[in-house]
Write a structure and sequence with these properties.
By secondary structure, this protein is α+β, with helices and mostly antiparallel strands. The chain contains 8 helices and 8 strands; from the N terminus they run αααββαααββαβββαβ. Bound molecules: zinc ion.
């Protein structure tokens, strides 16, 4: 049985390192909003438990055992978010904070029941893929909306789930996963994007557009 904070560290290291690179302690400190000294202490503990490997000046990587716990925690989180949204009608900007707590206490039986009730879903309410029970997590190739050129039609696949205020704002613009949008104009010098969403036109800042991930071609659902 590992503690909540161990699960949070492993999840964070997984997310920061999913492109295969080793993760620096300063990146972990920034993401978890804790001091570099506490990260150093925790990384040492995780290494003693054989959940990570740590090479000074080169960073941290998960072992197979660490990766397994990280993916299980992410599966819990994303299943819970979808369950809270679909079964209880909790708005999409509120489910993340609840799932952050519940992910650590979900039993295997309840996890199975939730997955069954939802029909083994592939994505959470924000479009993030849900790891399978075997611990497979596909990382679909997606582009930040901020990098799309004017004149292109794209489909929103995923939005960042961590900032509730951003999610509420995206909802007012109709920017949900699986929505097709046309990029009408991109202002130079990191300026805003003008989007067509259904019949409406919206101007969104580049900062917000960096939190929205799209694909160019329709994908199989
Ligand atoms: Zn979340």
């Amino acid at each position: 049985m590992v503690s909540q904070s161990i699960e949070d560290y492993l999840k964070t290291i997984y997310k920061l390192g999913r492109r295969g690179e080793r993760v620096t302690t300063s990146a972990i400190a920034e993401r978890l909003e804790v001091s570099p000294a506490s990260v150093t202490n925790m990384v040492k503990r995780l290494a003693d438990m054989n959940l990570v490997t740590h090479e000074p000046y080169r960073g941290v990587a998960l072992t197979e055992a660490g990766k397994k716990i990280a993916l299980e925690t992410i599966r819990h989180h994303r299943l819970l978010e979808l369950y809270l949204a679909e079964a209880l009608g909790i708005p999409w900007d509120k489910v993340h904070a609840e799932a952050e707590k519940l992910e650590h206490v979900l039993s295997d039986d309840l996890e199975m029941a939730i997955a069954d009730a939802l029909g083994d879903p592939l994505t959470d309410p924000h479009g993030a893929p849900i790891p399978t029970i075997e611990g497979e997590l596909p990382e679909p190739h997606q582009t930040p909306l901020a990098e799309v050129e004017a004149g292109q039609t794209v489909i929103i696949r995923q939005v960042s789930d961590e900032d509730a205020a951003k999610l509420r704002y995206l909802a007012t613009l109709g920017l949900f996963p699986n929505t097709a949008i046309e990029v009408l104009d991109v202002a130079p010098f990191d300026g805003p994007l003008t989007l067509r969403v259904g019949d409406a036109e919206h101007v969104v800042g580049r900062e917000l557009a960096r939190n929205v991930f799209v694909t160019h071609e329709p994908q199989e659902e």
